[in-house]
Amino acid sequence: MDGQWFRRFGDPEPDALKLICFPHAGGAASAYQQLYRRLRPHVEVLAVQYPGRQDRRLETPAADIGELAAMIAGKLADGETAAPFAFFGHSMGALVAYETARLLEERGVPAPRRLFLSARGAPGPRRSPHDVLPDDEAILAAVRRLGGTGVALLDDPELVAMVLPALRADYAALAAYSWTPREPLHMPVSVLCGDADPVVSVEEASGWRAFTRAETEVRVFPGGHFYVDQRLDDVAEVVLRGVRSVSAARAGNGACDDRTPVSDVRG
């Protein structure tokens, strides 16, 4: 796989299923190092490094979510990624993961066997007001509201200057995103969210059910938008269970214990 776009943590185990992870707005591939540590050696974690941040900071960021998804889908299709693999996306990353999966299915090339969509409501005809922010001050205020372990970095002007270009580009991409109705996907979806998320309600997150013909589970955890920081072990358990269901299906043994749709399961 293209090492510029997909960052691998550690050496993969033989026959390990790939979990391709999509960062949140302003985030980078390194955001998934802790999840990798929880999932090794059972899962090979790769994280997408979007252009316009860290070692890709001199590259032009994607203008909108659809463009970013198209670039990632192109890299996956060109690399002839061997199935099976799964996607995990948090916040903006959930939207990018969904659009990338949709493009892969439409092109008839290997697509993820499962989607894990975290801290993001399902898209619709109207843009989320939390995605359309008028200036840098509003963006920084939104990031503070979302919280997370890195929010204290916003008190350092030098660090703000470093992260603001990526945040600005990602919020511009979100504001430019226009959802187009398509046929539902054919892969199972696990929806994860926090019960105190200030921008995504459980009802909004549950809206992803309509986006697939396969089963959907909704897992609700205590916490806010970055509930994952406090519930990483529980999230890793959900991911590992979903990955094992994919592996069981690959072996011809059925879909393990994830075949029954689950609604609002409190973790």
UniProtKB/TrEMBL annotation:
Residues 20-243 form the Thioesterase TesA-like domain. The keyword Transferase does not apply. Keywords: Hydrolase. It holds the Pfam family Thioesterase. The keyword Metal-binding does not apply. Belongs to the thioesterase family. This is Thioesterase II family protein. The lineage of its organism: Bacteria, Bacillati, Actinomycetota, Actinomycetes, Kitasatosporales.
